[in-house]
Queue: 3 jobs
Job 1
Amino acid sequence: MTATPDPAITDAQWVRALAQARGLDRAYALFPEVVAAAVTRGTTSMSPLPATFSPLTEPAVAFDPAKFEEPK
Amino acid sequence: MSDLAFLTIAEASRLIRARKLSPVEFTKALLARIDATEPTYHAYIAVTEDLALAQAKAAEAAIMRGDWRGPMHGVPYATKDIFDVAGMATTCHSKLRMAHRAAADATATTKLREAGAVLLGKLALHEFATGGPTQDLPWPAARNPWNLDLHPGGSSSGAGVAVAIGTAPGALGTDTGGSVRNPATCCGVVGMKPTYGTVSRAGVFPLSFSLDNVGPLTRTVEDNAIMLQAIAGHDPADPASARREPADFTSALNAGVKGLRIGLIAHFYDEDMIAVPEQSAAIAAAVDVLRRLGAEVKPIRLSSLQRYSECGRTIHIAEAYAVHERDLQERPQDYAPITRRKLLPGAFIPAIDYLKAQQLRTALCAEFAAAMRDLDAVITLSSLDMPCRIDDDETIAKTYERQCRMPFNVTGTPAIAVPTGFTAAGLPTAMQITGRWFDEAMVYRVAQAYCEATGWCDRHPAVKVAERAASLVD
């Protein structure tokens, strides 16, 4: 069985589906053009984080400029 | 009062230490000037008058006892409203943060408090350090001090304006893709983005974890070095904080540039993108000045400006969305339209793009390190355009893509913006000076030699003061 795009699915439906997948239903309902423009940059990735997770957490792999320093 | 308004940190410090200038009188004079200029310039979101006077009195008492702590003791400053100050809202210039109250000071403000500095207040910015000048927020946008109709640069807009008009001798900003250097450029002052990890970001609301930096804006290079010295240093509360003692940023300041090898990245602004003639002519004249001072200036080639910009932008957008996802899902209407437009694309950046950008970043850092092997410093433009009208959203969006600042957020190297002159319309132009990782001292040395030779840092805008308070100011 091949995955063939359903011609009945419109761009608006696709954007809405992506927005919903990212939890942006409210943003799409209020600002559909803005969300449509944002969708042009990509697709879904991470699952929603648990409610106890702080969005200010520093990533584990931090950029380390000292790696690139060369002795004078 | 006008003399006090444009007193540099270094001059004020010398006078305060010699007990010829009272920190209390200095602070009162600046508070009066803030009162007189705010109706026009909107640089401040909150003025901490009571705190400032209490800190100034404490500094004065200590200095009179002979307990002088260093060059920031008794010197006023202000901070972008993205730094925590205990008991105050860190608004980030956003409706979303009006109810916030910080439990403690940010590390940078703690260091300045411990150095005896006096906090005048918290400054306007682009919403969450990423939006733009807009009237859709609870506080007005700061205005360009050289022409009130124009954009003052951002995101540390209030910092650039306050320093330029003499309502703070120095200010703290943050820089993720140029947010210290852009307002410095547009306002005709000096703005430093130090090496990534030099200044702790603990207690600073993040925009993009791996690109964010804290940096000072001042009217002179010497003041900038003094302020950076006061806030630099390892902080275990910031996972990216560099584990090393800060270098001495001021001792080699006046060593000159004779014999130094300086690279010129001209292809960023005359090939990859084309700068306006005013900016190009100004940096060409700056090259002549550096050569006359004895530096060897030679063109170098790096990857294209677009390559660096795309790398930084991809990381920035993805990381910023991680910070804001919950609020964009639950209350997107509370962001200004310009901020929503900038943040929402991060929801749809594929993981592979983010990883590729981080891989590319490693390659670009290696490229830059190789270029620096035979060089002491590098110069290039800051902005490719002159500031546009503050209400021209479309042009503002374009100018944010046309700049040479993001490359040094990608490399994490120090980069300073300094004025290179003024156009026929009276607007400042600027260039950047960058160097090796953690070699801020060399960057400052080149900047100091150039600024001393040209005197561009000594020029101030004609400041408009409100009539009701004019008597307090003059």
Job 2
Amino acid sequence: MAEMVKKATRESYGLALAELGETNPDVVVLDADLASATKSFFFRDKFPDRFVDCGIAECNMIGVAAGLATCGKIPFASSFAMFAAGRAFEQVRNSVGYPHLNVKIAGSHAGISVGEDGATHQCLEDLALMRTIPGMVVLNPADHYEMQAAVKAAAEYVGPVYIRLGRLAVESFNNSDDYHFEIGRGITLRDGRDITVIATGLMVSRAVEAVRELEKEGIDARLINLHTLKPLDREIIVRAARETGKIVTVEEHNVIGGLGDAVCSVVCSECPVPVVKIGVNDQFGHSGPAAALLEQYGLCASHIEEVVRRVLKK
Amino acid sequence: MKQNEKKALQIAACKIRMGAIEGVYHAKSGHPGGSLSAADIFAYLYFKEMNIDPKRPKDENRDRFVLSKGHTCPGLYAALALKGYFPWDELKKLRHIGAMLQGHPDMKGTPGIDMSTGSLGQGVAAAGGMALAGKMDGKNYRVYSVLGDGETEEGEVWEAAMFAGHHKLDNLCLIIDDNGLQIDGPTAEIGGPEPLDQKYRAFGFDVQKIDGHDFDAIEAAFNHAKTVKGKPSAIIARTVKGRGVSYMENQVGWHGKAPNDEQYRVAMRELKKTLSELEAE
């Protein structure tokens, strides 16, 4: 069993890159003046010749990454999710997605847990945007160990990958020895028969807490960590729908276009059961401490518990 | 430049113009104006300047070409076909369902295309990445990118210029096909991108202004660009949109329109006449 650590996944990203640089000489890391925030500086400090700070110009950074990829490099282009997936969306679509280039895009400070910076920086649309690009792999790792595994897997996979990074430190839970990360394969963290909670990213840790509390009340909830939004693990979703009959999804993202919608589209066509989506309900965020914001928007264990109880009562 | 060499390039350019018209006519859509204005530059790049081999389109040491103004690919496709990357007849299937030649360059499907482009401003950023990769790997290849003067209204063009200047990418050579026209009218009236020479100079480029239809001037500019150290190059090539087809020259309406049957016959007649005059000399 690996040790429990409390780290933000952005830090795990930077550490994983620095490790990856040792074994893979083709890995190059790009940033857009946010190396200290995306933690890509861990790589920069170790491999300055393979690090390029593109300045505050995310659209150009994605283009440079595309050009590097055509020459055999494996670029990891890092910025805030708002700018990597949002501002540079069309560059990602046309210069990376359409030619299916081997570019990895890391969007940090995703979701409302950016906190004090407020709505302009709280990207709640990145998963939706990236999911719509054909051939794009979309990863949303939940803790330190999962992020490290995801970065490694992304480098091994040939093709475009979007990785969502969080700002907030999160207690690790994927530290068991049999933990296995595979792109496109969800992880059942707890088996259960009454209902299924499917969570992604930062929300998995909140769901772990919620399911633990619900167990005390005799509620046998299945918990699935869906770290890959695309390609989606249809099998694990359909099985959950069939075996538990009710699903609650939890994501730190607009309920439009993210995890909830992805799950709904599978459930609707293959095994229709009620799906209740927990996420940000088509609103912008605002400034405040991350923990307080998460609570305010219902992205916390107590709200997950409340929704599960409500769904089971129906 | 020697007379026979110039003649060969003029013939190649004329054939490229014929191929571009052929493609757009058969597609019943596409962009002839900018294909014709850049035809001499395409001819020089593919038949004189670049270190390329159509038999090895992915050779890692080859020079790279990015058509940042991707909509003028009918001209580029004709150059590639003429060079031997694919059969000339493919041009007649341009933009058709199932065809290899897409409405804008597709690097996955077309041999010789080094970057998928079409959304203006993006190609030149990718060209910067290719030049950077060459520097990182200590390779000697050069990267060429043709952009439109109208295209320089895109902000990303200047992000890319700042990047190339800052990183001293002297293996990068931009050619601005400065035909003075964009879809909605003269560039001077629409976006006002000039003075492009001063702008590129301010971004750290070596800048040359030339007549983009004069092969002596084109040769001198590319030769000079190769001697520049520590700076990327910008060659601002003054051109005539629609060059080579009388009724298309300097006509903004021929930016993105296919000739009808009669217009096609006239265009081909004119170009064939030019070609036979060149070949007879």
Job 3
Amino acid sequence: MKPELMLLWTAVGLYGLSAFSYIFGLISKSEKLFTVGLYSALAGFAPHVGTIALRWSATGITPFISISESLSLGVFMAVLVLLATLFAIKRLRPIGVLVMPVAFVLLGWSGTLMKEVAATIAPALQSGWIWVHIVGASTGFASVLIAAGLGLIYLLKENRTGGIYDRLPDLDTIDVLSYRYVAAGFIMYGLMIVSGCFWSNQVKGNYWNWDPVEVWSLISWLVYGIYLHLRITFGWRGRRLAWYALFALAAMIVSYWGIPFSMETFHSGFRIEH
Amino acid sequence: MPDLNNLPENDSENDQYPIEPRYHPVNRFARKIFDSLASSKLAMFLLVFILACCVVGVTVYRGQKAGEMIFGTLWFNGMLILLVINVACCFFGRIWGRKVTIISFGMILFHLSFVAIFAGIVYNSLFHFDGVIRLTEGETLPSGDVNSYDRADHGRFFSYAKLRGETTLIRMHIGYKVEGEDKRAAYEVEVGERGSKKKGIIYITHNLDYGDIKYLPEKEGYSLLTVLSDAQGREIYGAFVPLQSLKQGKENSYLYATGTKEGPESFPFPQEPEKPRYAVLLEYTPSPLKERSGEVHYQVWPLVPGEGMPAEKKIADAKAAVTEKIPAGAHQLSVKEVGYWVAMNVRYDPGKPVVLVSLWAGLGGMIITTFGRMLRRRGSARSNPGSTSLPEKEILG
């Protein structure tokens, strides 16, 4: 097995350990299992970084092009933001209950799709906009994933007391935090769409072509735009927005990786005819 | 006029929900229309409706069908315009008379940019031009002639006089490299009027601007200089014949042949206005060793006199290297030279700068609003250190 694949599957294994530790920690209300979950996520993050670095150094081509690489980058950013959040705000540890299983499944999926490192990069992808675009997309995903994690613990804490639930911040605080992560995700998706428009303008001479990837990114952005308006204009708070954040995450994952990559679009690289 | 010294902040948490507009026109009729357009329920309905249309447009219908059924339709674009009017009325009706803070400034910028984007789109749709011009190496076509374009869409108020001068394809470069990066195909072109022509190389991610007109690469293919000679080998007719690139199987292998995108087909040769004598089907296999060389497979049918249709029986079915001749009835056929044709996208989008600047302005508005909220939280924390309602105090440590 190639070193980058070995590192990738090690990361998948450790993220899996982290995911199950969080799930069983929640069931058994065990703080210790949350600690195991946190540190196994941290341990898994190292080989995950290693596999990205190895692929990058192999050809010098940014390893964020194919669907497996895109999944890997999204998970990388989600785990990075999760770790930063959990080390800054220790009482939020249970949000790993949603984040780590998602990270585990998506990175495992990425592993099954992983191909050889590309020897060349399609001309359309040789643009500086790629950096702004992928930072916006992956950070946006990380933010809304954490927001959904906060939504989940809001719903769990609402009807439960004792043990880990008492150590969580109060419901209003969780609600406000979830909103802040959604707002951050909304801005990052905005950055992704704006940079995508400029990139498309550079390549196709048009900023918007209604192609499936563009429409799906618009769908994600609108979904979170509606969230913000429900909160700011309609005064929604608490349980309803927590549910909304969870459903929105599902829509987001479909829009990000589900349908767009299954068809030939801009992101699949350009057709070269000669 | 509202009392400017005693204005509420736009982002007050103490508002009653749903937040209602603060501005109402004096005229009763205008007020009724404005209140309908400024309805937050209408905004939510439009957002959800457009969202649902987008989902249908990428699941039930896809690609061109989605454009025909949804994204390109009058009703969908009408909904988008209604959304913009609704957003403008909703937002500016509610922010009317409120104190301008960093937060509200960001929100104003965001919503203004939203309106400006759609204004740019509408303006562009009225004046734009989007055409595809196809040229063989060495060929020149008048830019302002509608017949020069394979496809041309333009706005109601666009004038072809905007497209001044000529467009020439000087050469197509394969394997073109810029700072070590393989751009695969690059077109060397010259555009414009005599005396002020502009020359340049275009490839994906690098376009040529001539005034407000943009030239972009679209696609390219082989073009064979096919020559008909008499029995003594004297050339009597020659023309560049463009080939289709027909994808074979799942791998990146192509069949290069005359015909349409549906498949290989013969074509009358010589071409009009000359009198056609044969139906010729050419298939070209490029040499992997040397560019613009390789082997050509010729299939030739005589044309039935009076009908202009190919006869059933072929008079030639042979392969020969480029420049080599093959016998075809009383004549000889050869490919003298392998060249390229390219299709270039020619665009004029006067509303685009407004849209692109507004995109950044909108993003800036979102960031300014967030920055303003962060500043407000810090200010609240300083002025009310004992407060337990601040999330930071609650969760940190």
